[in-house]
Amino acid sequence: MKDHQARLIQLSYENKILTFGDFTLKSGRKSPYFFNSGFFCAGDVLGAVADSYAQTIIDAPDLEFDIILGPAYKGIPLAAVTIVKLAEKDPAKYGKMEYAYNRKEKKDHGEGGNTVGGSLKGKRVLILDDVMTAGTAIRESMALINAESGILAGVVLILDRQERMVDYEHSMIAQVKRDYGVPIYSIITLDDIVQFAKGKLPEEDIKKIEDYREKYKANPIAE
Kind of pairing, strands 184-189 and 151-160? Predict the structure, then answer.
């Protein structure tokens, strides 16, 4: 695990973004851990998120994009802090790059439109989101990108839960990769969380996470 990943997980744990216990997910699954990105509100952990997003983007060999899109609502601050961090790390490449986010309701007065921030028209768009579970945000974002005459360039997530969908043996990430033919990167994975938990949680709790991982692990998508 890289330093920025370890720091992000540690701060997520300290700020109760990453918690361990018994949780019921929207899917109905009983999970021994929960990751709530809505709690990315303290300066230190939000800075760690920005640094991890930026480093993941810089390290990705096949991400070429012109603008960042943060799907409302959780994606808005993620995109904003990431573009700032990218500009700090590489001002020549990212200093003038813009970000945008979607409106939940189209505005028909003032500047109007479906987006706020930079224009997506004719640009390669990189989407930032926290997790990908049902794929709702990515599909809504794709509809927006198409409507604005943009081109999807890729997706970067905070967490890959590495688990299969309810009705399929593969993950939603694999499904989106196949459907849209773009690279998808994650800052951290469930494997990283398990590694972090060892030495911090009782063996009984670690076993619950490992059992969950084994029970719901995603298989490669069928061709």
Answer: parallel
pLDDT in tens, 102-145: 986 655 544 556 889 999 999 999 999 999 987 788 889 999 99
The encoded tokens of residue 133 equal: 């579970």
A 10 A CB-CB count for 22 gives: 10
Instruction: Give the H or E element holding residue 49.
Output: helix 43-59
| SS3 (DSSP) at 43 | helix
Query: Among all chains, which residue has been given the structure tokens 């986010």?
Result: 101
Q: Are 184 and 158 in contact (CB under 8 A)?
A: no
Cα–Cα dist 162/217, whole Å: 6
The pLDDT value given to residue 223: 55
Distances (CA, A) of 172 to 66, 95, 196: 25, 33, 24
Please list, in sequence order, all residues whose beta carbon lies within 8 angstroms of the beta carbon of residue 82, skipping any fewer than 6 positions away.
49, 50, 53, 54, 57, 68, 99, 128
Contact yes or no for 114/18 (Cβ under 8 A): no
Q: Do the Cβ atoms of 135 and 141 come closer than 8 Å?
A: no
Does the pTM of the predicted model rise above 0.85?
yes
CA 204/CA 223 separation, integer angstroms: 38
Q: Point out the residues that are catalytic.
A: 107, 109
pLDDT tier at 166, thresholds 50, 70, 90? confident
Structure tokens at 125: 């768009």
Per-residue pLDDT at 134:
75
**Tokens 């809504």 appear where?**
140
